[in-house]
Design goal:
Blueprint lengths: L34 E5 L6 E5 L12 E5 L2 E2 L3 E5 L5 E6 L3 H7 L1 E3 L2 E11 L9 E4 L3 E8 L4 E8 L3 H8 L16 H4 L10 E3 L11 H9 L3 E7 L22 E5 L1 H12 L4 E4 L1 H14 L7 E5 L14 E5 L6 H10 L1 H13 L10 E4 L1
Parallel strand pairs: 1-18, 3-13, 3-15, 4-12, 15-17
Antiparallel strand pairs: 1-2, 5-6, 6-8, 7-8, 8-11, 9-10, 10-11, 13-14, 14-16, 17-18
Length: 366
């Protein structure tokens, strides 16, 4: 990979033309029926195929690492003290709230970060209600609509959220939630005890049970990490010089079993394939903090921002979707294969009518 140029650090360098009709508004009729663009860094060519052919293009003996976080119905409709409508988007992963909760008068409570609407009408000290089992006292206003609140709930938090809330579909999906989104905006391997994301790790949406069996039969290994996808995945980069941008922190977990599996793969020279940018950030963020993947695993916060000039320490290959212009995610992919290379691939994808973003088609950078 050549050294980054001055243009690689300019936000405007990550723009590209995308007709609105190329933004997927619905998942494909069948899970796994997506297209796949293979960006081959050695040959310089782009291969156009179906996601079902993925095993033919992954390096022999590779370890795939996927994110098993579950998307929660984190968008809660409710009311302000005046009776006016309010909406809360929970940013703090529920597992962290549950572990930190205290109980008082039959209500559990913990400090949380949220987005609130309408922000101008909500004041510090307001108590907002969401059904009969969730409430929030506003503690502080922050930038870009974020607020600190004291979140109150009765019963099981995630269960109550499911009865009240909606899946926070990305803002570029211009429709209301449908019943199919409850299953299709989750990976099949998402774990109920890892319920904490406000957005799906979308590269994983393509994987079916049949694909998992094929990968196993072909000798590929599989491991899982957890990154609770936060609002930062939608939050725009606001600095013209991207080096001045700071990503919103996300909570990650790497189990001892996964840590040892990844360490063995690296030791044995087996390629590590990240299933999605979230898995990539988990592994690289852990390495950045510790200088390795600790044998005992790790859990904590990462706000690693990967852009051209970054040296990957663990991940060699990436399965991903097509990302928004000027987003931190397209910058991560550019760090792996080069900004001009990825923008050329995106232009080719537009020309060939690939479907973009969360419910869109897939890419393998190898």
């Amino acid at each position: 990979m050549k050294e980054p140029s001055a243009a690689d650090f300019q936000l405007s360098s990550y723009d590209y033309a995308l007709p609105e009709e190329r933004i997927a508004q619905f998942p494909p009729e069948e899970r796994g029926a997506s297209r796949l663009m293979v960006v081959d860094r050695k040959s310089g060519e782009n291969i156009h195929t179906a996601f079902a052919q993925l095993p033919d293009f992954i390096p022999e003996g590779a370890l795939l690492v996927a994110n098993n976080s579950l998307v929660v119905p984190a968008r809660l409709p409710g009311f302000r003290p005046s009776g006016g409508k309010a909406e809360l988007l929970l940013l703090t992963p529920p597992p962290l709230l549950i572990s930190a909760a205290e109980e008082e008068d039959g209500w559990k409570h913990a400090r949380a970060e949220v987005l609130l609407k309408p922000g101008r009408a909500i004041r510090v000290g307001d108590r907002l209600t969401f059904g009969d089992s969730i409430a929030a006292e506003v503690l502080a206003k922050k930038e870009y609509g974020r607020h600190d609140v004291k979140l109150f709930w009765k019963g099981e938090l995630v269960k109550e959220m499911k009865s009240i809330g909606r899946i926070p579909l990305p803002p570029y999906i211009k429709r209301e939630q449908r019943s199919e989104d409850l299953s299709r905006y989750q990976t099949l391997y998402a774990r109920r005890d890892k319920a904490g994301s406000v957005a799906a790790p979308t590269a994983g949406l393509h994987f079916t049970e049949a694909m998992r069996r094929t990968l196993e039969e072909r000798g590929f290994s599989w491991a899982e990490v957890t990154l609770h996808v936060g609002y930062g995945t939608f939050s725009p980069v606001r600095e013209d010089d991207i080096r001045r941008h700071t990503l919103h922190g996300e909570f990650v977990e790497i189990s001892p079993e996964t840590a040892q599996t990844v360490r063995r793969a690296v030791r044995d020279g087996r390629p590590v394939v990240a299933v999605g940018t979230t898995s990539c950030r988990t592994l690289e963020g852990c390495f950045q903090l510790h200088g390795e993947i600790p044998e005992q695993g790790w859990h904590g916060w990462t706000n690693i921002f990967i852009y051209p000039g970054y040296t990957f320490r663990v991940v060699e290959h990436l399965i991903t979707n097509f990302h928004l212009p000027q987003s931190s995610l397209i910058m991560l992919v550019a760090a792996l294969c080069g900004r001009e290379r990825i923008l050329d691939a995106y232009a080719e994808a537009v020309e060939r009518k690939y479907r973009f973003f969360s419910y869109g088609d897939a890419m393998l950078v190898r």
